[in-house]
Amino acid sequence: MIRDPETLQALLDSVNRFVRERLVPAEPIVAETDEIPEDLQRGMKELGLFGLTIPEEYGGFGATMEEEVMVMLAMGQTSPCFRSLFGTTVGIGSQGILLDGSEAQKKKYLPKLATGELMASFALTEPEAGSDAASLRTTAIRDGDHYIVNGTKRFITNAPQAGIFTLMARTNPEDKGASGVSAFIVEADTKGISIGRKDRKMGQRGAHTADVIFENARVPASQLIGGREGQGFKTAMKVLEKGRIHIAAICVGVAERMLRDALQYAIQRKQFGQPIAEFQLVQAMLADSQAEIYAARCMVIDAARRRDEGLNVSTEASCCKMFASEMCGRVADRAVQIFGGSGYVADHGIERFYRDVRLFRLYEGTTQIQQIVIARNLVREATR
Ligand code: COS
C-alpha cells in the first residue's frame, strides 16, 4: 500500500540521486577499505533511511511494506553493503521491538533507531544452530530482576557497530524446542558481552559480521520483549518473514543493476566486427535475465501488498526470497559471462557483485529453508 504517492516519490528521488551520485562512485573504495566512509553513513541518516520502517510516532517514516520494497529496489542499484548498514536495523534488527515489544520498550529504543543514533542487530544464529534455529543453546536464566545470558551468536551482521541486539535465548533449558526461547533487547555495552573479530567474507566488503559472545551478561528483566517468556522464536519467525520480502526486493534491485551494466558492456564491446549485443546467444542471456527480473519484481510487489492488507504471507515471503535470490545468482553469472574475461578481473566491478550476491541465497533462511516453509504451508493447507 502506498499512502501518499508524492511523498514516496520525493523520497525515492532523493534515494536514487544519493545512490547515483554518492554511493555508486564510492563502490571501489568501500570494496578496497572494507569501510563505508563516515560522510556516506551520515548521508543515509539524513535521508531518513534508518527510520524507514519505524512508525511516525517514534520519529520514523513509517513505511508500509510496499513502500519499503520500493526503497529497497532503489537501494539495490548499488553495492549491497550500503543497504546492510541501515537495512539490518530497519529490516530485522528493530522489528522484534516493533512487532512484539511493550510500549515502554518502543518508546525507549525506536526514536534512537529511527535517527541512526543507535543501530540494531538480530542475534539468532549460533555455531550449532543455523537453519535449525529452534535448537539454539544460548541461555538466559532468570536471577531476581535480571537474566544471566551465556552463549555465542554467529555471523551477526553489524555486530561491531550495534548499540542493541535483538537476542533470542533459551529461558527454559528443560524445553529444547521453539517454546523454550525468548527474545530480549540487549544493550551492547552490557558487561559480559564481547564481539569477535570481523569475519573474512567472500563479498559484501563494507558490511561486517562477527560473533557476539555472552559470558554471564546480566540483562535486566525489563528487556524481555513484550514481557513474556517463550515467545522469542515466534518473534524471530515473524521478523524473518518480513525480512525475506525486504531481501527479495534488494535481490531484484541488484539484478537490475547487473543487467544494466552487462547490457552497456554488450552494446560497446565489439567482436567479429560487431557489438556482442547483436549476437543472439548474448541476447538470450540478456532476455532471460530481464524476464526473470520482471517476474521477481512482480512477486515482491504482490507479496508486499498482501502483507499490507493484513494477509498471511508466510508462503509468499519465502517464494519471493527463494526466487529472487536464485534469480539474482543466475543474473550475476550471466553478467560475468557477458563481460567475458573482463568479468573475471576486478576493474569492471561485476565480479564483486557476483561475490556479493552469493549471500542472498544463504542468509535470512537458505533456499532450502524457503522450500521447506513453502512446502509445509502447502501440505498444511491441503490437509486442514
Ligand atoms: N510467524 C509466526 N509464527 C511462526 C512462524 C511465522 N512465520 N513460523 C513459525 N512460527 C511458529 C509456529 O507456528 C510454531 O508455533 P506453535 O508451536 O505454537 O505452533 C513455532 O513458531 C515453531 O515453528 P516450527 O514448528 O515451524 O519450527 P521448526 O523448528 O520446525 O523451524 C524453520 C521452522 C525451519 C522454518 C525455522 O527454523 C527457520 O526459519 N529456520 C531458518 C532460520 C533463518 O532464517 N536463519 C537466518 C538467520 S537470521 S539472518
Describe the fold and architecture.
The protein is of the alpha+beta class. It has three domains: 5-115, Acyl-CoA dehydrogenase/oxidase, N-terminal domain (Butyryl-Coa Dehydrogenase, subunit A, domain 1); 120-228, Butyryl-CoA Dehydrogenase, subunit A, domain 2 (Beta Barrel), CATH 2.40.110.10; 234-382, Butyryl-CoA Dehydrogenase, subunit A, domain 3, CATH 1.20.140.10. Helices cover 53% and strands 14% of the residues. It has twelve helices and nine strands. The chain has helices spanning 5-33, 38-46, 65-75, 80-93, 95-100, 103-115, 232-268, 280-308, 314-339, 341-344, 350-356, 367-383; strands spanning 120-123, 139-143, 146-157, 164-170, 181-187, 193-195, 209-220, 270-271, 274-275. The strands form three sheets. A four-stranded antiparallel sheet has the order 2-3-7-6, with no helix packed on it. A three-stranded mixed sheet has the order 1-4-5. The chain has a two-stranded antiparallel ribbon with strand order 8-9. β8 and β9 (274-275) form a beta hairpin. α1 (5-33) crosses α3 (65-75) and α9 (314-339) runs antiparallel to α11. The model has no long low-confidence stretch (mean pLDDT 97). Residues 122, 124-125, 131-134, 178, 233-234, 237-238, 240-241, 314, 363-365, 369, 372-373 line the site of coenzyme a persulfide (COS).
Largest sheet: 4 strands, antiparallel
Please give the alpha-carbon distance between the first and last residues.
30 Å
Per CATH, the superfamily of the largest domain is: Butyryl-CoA Dehydrogenase, subunit A, domain 3
Order of helices and strands: HHHHHHEEEEEEEHEEHHHHH
Give the overall shape, derived from the CA principal axes.
globular
CATH secondary-structure class of the largest domain: Mainly Alpha
